[in-house]
Amino acid sequence: TLFRSLDLFRSVCNNRAFANTSIMLFLNKKDIFAEKILYSDIAAQRPFSDYAGPPKDFDHGVLYFIQKFKDCLIEEDFNDSFIHVTCATDTNNMEFVLDSTRTIIMTDNLVRSGFLGSE
Fold first, then answer.
1. d(CA 70, CA 113)
2. Could you tell me the pTM of the whole model?
3. Distances (CA, A) of 79 to 18, 64, 65, 70, 96
4. What is the DSSP secondary structure assignment for residue 74, as one 8-state letter?
5. Which of 8, 16, 32, 111 is deepest in the core (most CB within 10 A)?
6. What DSSP element (H or E) covers 20?
């Protein structure tokens, strides 16, 4: 469930073993979410009863869950470019996501090694 995913994300991201490590969040299966939101009320689910956005609204729902994942983090400097809402079967979308992921990882490594600006 999504609630368990949030718990897992919280425990992994806040683990000391991953300190000073870039974290990327992939919210996959956006196509299924787009279908389910038409007949499921986010606020009716006990863990998400604080949802105040309009019902059946994909964009507000996605932004709500992105914020839920961000709220799991102790460090508040999570870069929004490290968040991707994806559909693994959409090859154009996945190509873009993988290209941007590659760029983020390379840039992060260059900054950490001192070859590109400073942290």
1. 27
2. 0.80
3. 16, 16, 16, 10, 18
4. S
5. 111
6. none
**Portion of the chain with pLDDT greater than 90, in percent:** 42
**Could you give the CA distance from residue 97 to residue 31 in angstroms, rounded to a whole number?**
16
Structure-block tokens of residue 24: 């990327």
Token pair recorded at residue 86: 């994806």
Q: pLDDT higher for 3 or 117?
A: 3
65: closest CA among 44, 96, 42, 32? 42
pLDDT tens by residue, 41-96? 999 999 999 999 999 999 999 999 999 999 988 876 666 667 888 887 877 777 87
106 token code pair: 């390379």
Burial 72-105 (b: 16+ CB within 10 A, else e): beeeeebeeeebbbbbeeeeeeeeebeeeeeeee
